[in-house]
């Protein structure tokens, strides 16, 4: 199949659930990877339900969302335009029209990009080639092994020649018997196919039509029953089903029957848990299982025992990157969802799922500036798909809205997550959905407005941010919601600073400080400190700017594990010290501290600011080679974030002055060469950035 990618830029791997489409795609990608110097990137789509977020999801998988003010589609197409890479869109059938539309745009805009999709139905996009995945071949009872030497030569984990077989179940799996042998060996610690058991093994594989998922579910049963018993039980079950249906089972029915048989062999607690786990859109940990799948506190111990049982039965899998997290395969999740619907527990279970992630988000919002900020943030990144699912349920994306108050609180409590993760567009999207649900005066509307203004200020949409913050603050004051109004003034301070309206920003900052103090809003006060420092250094009051930085650090205390506020405090302190004669060394120390924290967060805007100030310092001290390289490294980040310094004239003046000094000292050719080296290095770092990982621009 890898050869198909040589002839077509869009190949869709087709087949029913459980047949191994993803394994086929990954095996084909592994064989073709040398043809894609910019890499092979997989985009998991099974947890995405809202097609409006498809471009956002793909861009995020490529690490392209951080503080980029452009629409996600524009960001994505601009990034891909000159790339030579393979994108794998895994599991497209539930949003097939959106996938077809996006793929068409990608192929038109990026002539050297190819797309490999997996789906239960074609995308029906222009130029699409399809590859139908067949089940694994199943030998007759009397057949010899793949290598022609007979079953007695097939030991644990044995493989036939040729690697991937016709079904493409993966490297080294040539037929159904091989897959059964591998999985059975993993379960029993030494299973092998022999002359004595060959008939039973081949009969099991034939009964299951060579469907990989069905075979794996059967093989794991060797933990609790002997091979002849397993073969006999399957025979009996499938004969009954065939008689009930008055004919042989097709492959879809075979897979369903295998899943139902596995389901029947589970305990009652395991069956209930399987159904309830279907509400998770992505991976999950034990704490999430306890909170979502146990109706009462007393049931939690039973839920944990049932989870262990489902893992033992290969219904639930451990995540390969973190064995403290678990997942359900799509086909098994769908089956569980059907069982949940039949039980009448959908609303109760989804409400518990929503409540679990609302608790997590509420804590993160209230303790945004605590020492465990980074750990809590990374936990939210793991749960991004579940946060989406909770928001969809609460705000009625695919149904009548059920829990709009909870949805509003969830979206607004994540204000810091939207910023740190760079999911600014998605934050804007969900906050706008909240506003759609609350068109009249309410605390929910006021809070959503001021939080959307916060997000939009970082997006660079300053006029819209001012409008949101102003309307939300006025509404909060009218409703007597002083805590929301305090945050409104906080976000107004930042936005007015960006627009250069220093007097108005100072007035908003004074109101924010007074009201945040009255409300005991420590995170808000900490966020205000670097904002007031930046405002004062731009206005020329450098001593006051440093006092604001010191105020922020004093509130955090020595040895604080908080990153977001500290990184801004250090960066703004560096900017201030740059403007003070004889403080170059102090400036460098502060900026480097800010840069380290920004890189841990992956904050593109913050990294760009730090690189710029270091370039200014280098130009001032005569290290013009270094200055040119640093300017080159900062440029791709600014391009991703919009205008340099959000168009702040004072900052741009310092930039131009330093560039001119370096250019004059080096000459145009030398400056251009070093600038290009920095640009290339930064672009390589951006291209290698994976989701959830920080960006580290390494300075030579």
Descriptive overview:
This protein is mainly α and 700 residues long. Among the domains are: 4-132, P-loop containing nucleotide triphosphate hydrolases (Rossmann fold, 3-Layer(aba) Sandwich), CATH 3.40.50; 151-264, no CATH class; 609-700. Helix content is 63%, strand content 6%. It has helices at residues 4-7, 21-32, 54-61, 72-80, 96-109, 176-188, 198-207, 212-219, 227-245, 251-264, 268-277, 286-293, 300-312, 330-343, 346-366, 373-382, 384-395, 404-413, 415-421, 424-437, 443-459, 462-479, 482-499, 502-519, 522-539, 542-556, 564-578, 584-601, 604-620, 624-641, 649-666, 668-687, and strands at residues 10-14, 40-44, 86-90, 114-119, 128-132, 284-285, 316-319, 322-328. It has a five-stranded parallel beta sheet with strand order 2-3-4-1-5, with helices on both faces. The chain has a three-stranded antiparallel beta sheet with strand order 6-8-7. Helix 12 packs across helix 13 (300-312), helix 27 packs antiparallel against helix 28 and helix 31 crosses helix 32 (668-687). Mean pLDDT is 87; it is low at 142-173.
């Amino acid at each position: 199949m890898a050869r198909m990618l040589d002839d077509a830029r869009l190949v869709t791997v087709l087949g029913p659930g459980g047949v191994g489409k993803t394994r086929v795609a990954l095996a084909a990608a592994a064989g073709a990877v040398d043809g894609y110097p910019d890499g092979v990137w997989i985009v998991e789509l099974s947890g995405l339900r809202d097609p409006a977020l498809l471009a956002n999801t793909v861009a995020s998988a490529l690490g392209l969302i951080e503080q980029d003010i452009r629409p996600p589609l524009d960001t994505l197409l601009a990034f891909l335009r000159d790339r030579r890479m393979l994108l794998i869109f895994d599991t497209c059938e539930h949003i097939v029209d959106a996938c077809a539309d996006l793929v068409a745009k990608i192929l038109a805009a990026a002539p050297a990009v190819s797309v490999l999709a997996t789906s239960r139905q074609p995308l029906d996009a222009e130029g699409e080639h399809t590859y139908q995945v067949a089940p694994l071949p199943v030998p007759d009872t009397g057949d010899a092994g793949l290598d022609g030497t007979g079953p007695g030569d097939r030991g644990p984990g044995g493989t036939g020649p040729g690697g991937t077989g016709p079904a493409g179940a993966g490297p080294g799996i040539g037929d159904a018997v091989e897959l059964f042998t591998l999985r059975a060996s993993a379960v029993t610690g030494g299973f092998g196919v022999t002359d004595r058991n060959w008939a039973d093994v081949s009969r099991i594989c034939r009964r299951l039509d060579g469907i990989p998922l069905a075979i794996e579910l059967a093989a794991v049963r060797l933990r609790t029953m002997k091979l002849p018993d397993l073969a006999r039980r399957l025979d009996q079950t499938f004969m009954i089903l065939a008689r009930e249906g008055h004919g042989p089972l097709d492959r879809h029915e075979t897979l369903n029957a295998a899943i139902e048989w596995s389901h029947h062999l589970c305990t009652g607690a395991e069956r209930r848990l399987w159904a309830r786990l279907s509400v998770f859109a992505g991976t999950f940990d034990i704490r999430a299982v306890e909170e979502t799948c146990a109706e009462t506190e007393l049931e939690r111990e039973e839920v944990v025992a049932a989870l262990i049982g489902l893992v033992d039965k290969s219904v639930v899998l451990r995540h390969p990157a973190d064995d403290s997290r678990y997942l359900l395969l799509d086909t098994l999740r769908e089956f569980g969802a059907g069982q949940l619907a039949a039980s009448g527990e959908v609303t109760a279970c989804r409400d518990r799922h929503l409540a679990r992630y609302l608790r997590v988000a509420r804590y993160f919002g209230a303790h945004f500036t605590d020492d465990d900020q980074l750990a809590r943030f990374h936990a939210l990144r793991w749960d991004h798909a579940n946060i989406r699912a909770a928001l969809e349920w609460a705000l009625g994306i695919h149904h009548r809205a059920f829990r709009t108050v909870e949805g509003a609180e969830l979206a607004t409590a994540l204000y810091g997550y939207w910023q740190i993760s760079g999911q600014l567009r998605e934050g804007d999207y969900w906050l706008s959905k909240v506003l759609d649900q609350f068109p009249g005066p309410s605390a929910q509307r006021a809070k959503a407005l001021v939080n959307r203004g916060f997000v939009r200020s970082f997006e660079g949409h300053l006029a819209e941010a001012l409008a949101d913050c102003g309307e939300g603050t006025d509404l909060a004051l009218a409703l007597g919601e002083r805590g929301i109004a305090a945050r409104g003034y906080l976000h107004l301070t930042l936005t007015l600073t960006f627009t250069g309206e220093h007097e108005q920003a100072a007035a908003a900052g004074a109101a924010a400080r007074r009201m945040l103090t009255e409300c005991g809003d420590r995170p808000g006060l900490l966020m205000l400190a670097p904002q007031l420092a930046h405002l004062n250094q731009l206005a020329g009051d450098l001593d006051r700017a440093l006092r604001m930085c010191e105020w922020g650090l004093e509130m955090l205390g020595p040895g604080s594990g908080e990153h977001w506020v500290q990184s801004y405090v250090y960066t703004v302190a560096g900017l201030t010290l740059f403007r003070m004669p004889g403080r170059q060394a102090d400036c460098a120390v502060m900026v480097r501290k800010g840069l380290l924290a920004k890189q841990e967060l992956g904050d593109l805007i913050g990294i760009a600011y730090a690189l710029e100030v270091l370039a200014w310092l280098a130009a001032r001290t005569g290290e013009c080679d270094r200055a040119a390289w640093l300017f080159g490294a900062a440029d791709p980040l600014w391009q991703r974030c919009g205008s340099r310094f959000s168009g702040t004239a004072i900052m741009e003046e310092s930039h131009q002055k330093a560039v001119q000094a370096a250019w004059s000292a080096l000459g145009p050719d030398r400056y251009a060469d070093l600038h290009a080296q920095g640009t290339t290095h930064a672009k390589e770092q951006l291209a290698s950035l994976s989701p959830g990982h920080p960006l580290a621009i390494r300075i030579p």
